Amino acid sequence: MRKGTLRQILLITDGCSNHGEDPIAMAALAKEQGITINVIGVLDQDIIDENGLREIEGIALSGGGVSQVVYAKQLSQTVQMVTRKAMTQTLQGVVNQELKQILGSHASFEDLPPEKRSEVMEVVEELGETVNLEVLILVDTSGSMKTKLPTVKEALFDLSLSLNARLGNNRFSIFVFPGKRGDADKVLDWTPKLEAISTVFPKLTSGGITPTGPAIREALHHFNKKRSLRSLLSDDDPYIEESM
Amino acid sequence: MMIHTSKNLCKLPAGTVVKGKWHRHSYKIVKSLGQGANGVVYLAQGGTGLVALKISDNSSAIISEVNVLRRFSEVQGVALGPCLLDVDDWFHPYINRTVSFYVMEYIKGEDFLSFIHKKGKEWIAILMLQLLGDLEKLHAAGWVFGDLKPENLIVSGSVPRVRLVDVGGTTLRGRAIKEFTEFFDRGYWGMGSRKAEPSYDLFAVAMIMINACYPNRFEKKGNEKEQLRAAILSNSYLKKYEKVLLRAIEGQYDAADEMKKDLIQLIHQSSSRQGKRVENKQKHSRKKKRLLETAFLVIFVLFAYILYLYAQIL
């Protein structure tokens, strides 16, 4: 199997969207483009409202990812757990596809006897360790998230610590929403290290609206922009080879 | 798929029979032993006696742990974790879904912290020596335990022996640690990476000793290295092991054996020093007693004299 790149969007929010497109629809769009969406809902002491909870689970479900609602204190551990779990899930999905091709359309990981499953799991773990990963982190900075931002920052440091211990390469990018002018602002472009965020976060101001859907669209756009650039580059390769 | 898997798996009542789909072995649930990050562990009655049964709806996590246990059984000589007995699937009637489970040897015993609480602090270092011996073998076999913490240590047997349970965090050397707990994670304390290497486990060993003296644990604040140092120095038990604890925290041990050697040395030193201190104290108190006697005598004589003078005046 060719070693590819896993693409994820990690959405950190504390409630319901109230502006623009339906975030669940945007999540489905992401999934169609091979990008997984994970959602973490951050609570203070308060209980999250039913609508917010439903939206958080809905986005992850339609985005093919994992969701979790936590108190701000547990954020660090959750962020890395959710990311790792979603990676395994995606890789297992890929392996399941391959299994179906070999064993027929009804076969999946769970249909294998435990002994065979062990071997498959070793492949999945090997892939999880070596595959390249791109995570676009989408942080809700509206209203009540303001006080939680220092914790979010710390959790993201922690995430890069966990992921950079892997053998594969990582690239991170951070967007915040609502943006100063548009729906979301890029605060950090693709980089292998998240250390740069300490200079970015203190400057953030919080706005009133929560355009979760449009922010996801913006994030997808950022993924695609990079990919089209790369496909341009890879188109060039054969040309160079030929000319040499 | 949601992540709160273990919560979705409502507790199985005692008497429930879990029957494997592939190997057709049956297990009768006795009681719950505890809940981990990836499922619930039950005590169960199997065909040959009591066993521990771990059940989870995250089949990949179960298989991943099974792989580790299977590899452990290939390491000859010592039992590094519980012995693996069976792996299978079961249709869970309460959630109407097939879940995975594995069956392992039931290690009867007490968890590390309650053992120390009952038997006394002098056991801490002794049990850590045993643990370091096991870690040396585990590391030599190419593994790092990862999620090392008191909850994953069980003290069993009539001659107390520490055993490692719950291999969910066990990772091949050189890879990224699979599972960890903040207080015992050197990454959390800003003291190194989350790469699976022996020094990762040895940091956790030092933190287990600290946890044994600070049962409530504590959170990091600001200067983490100084904070840990202060915690060691302000506890009379930990202070004796300051040297070895600080070296482990700073990641200066590359092998469990090195740390074990230093720990043994400090145990001997501290016990001989303790002996001397007791002697000193005794001498000191004897001296004090003599001084008290003299003072008492002087006062008595003085009092008699005053009484005598008073009688004279009258």
TrEMBL record, chain A:
InterPro entries, A to Z:
VWF_A, vWFA_dom_sf
A Pfam family that this protein carries is VWA
Instruction: Tell me which PROSITE patterns the record gives.
Output: VWFA
Q: Where is the VWFA domain?
A: 1-91
Its domain of life reads: Bacteria
Give the SUPFAM superfamilies listed for this entry. Answer: vWA-like (SSF53300)
Gene3D superfamilies per UniProt: von Willebrand factor, type A domain
- Please report the name of this protein according to its UniProt entry: Ca-activated chloride channel family protein
UniProtKB/TrEMBL annotation, chain B:
The molecular function terms of the Gene Ontology recorded here are: ATP binding; protein serine/threonine kinase activity
SMART domains, A to Z: S_TKc (SM00220)
Give the transmembrane region(s). 291-311
Query: Could you tell me which residue ranges the Protein kinase domain spans?
Result: 27-297
Q: Which UniProt keywords apply?
A: ATP-binding, Kinase, Membrane, Nucleotide-binding, Serine/threonine-protein kinase, Transferase, Transmembrane, Transmembrane helix
InterPro entries named among the record's database cross-references: Kinase-like_dom_sf, Prot_kinase_dom, Protein_kinase_ATP_BS
Q: Which domain of life is it from?
A: Bacteria
Q: Which organism is it from?
A: Thermolongibacillus altinsuensis
Instruction: Return the protein name.
Output: Serine/threonine protein kinase
Give me the residues that bind ATP, please: K54
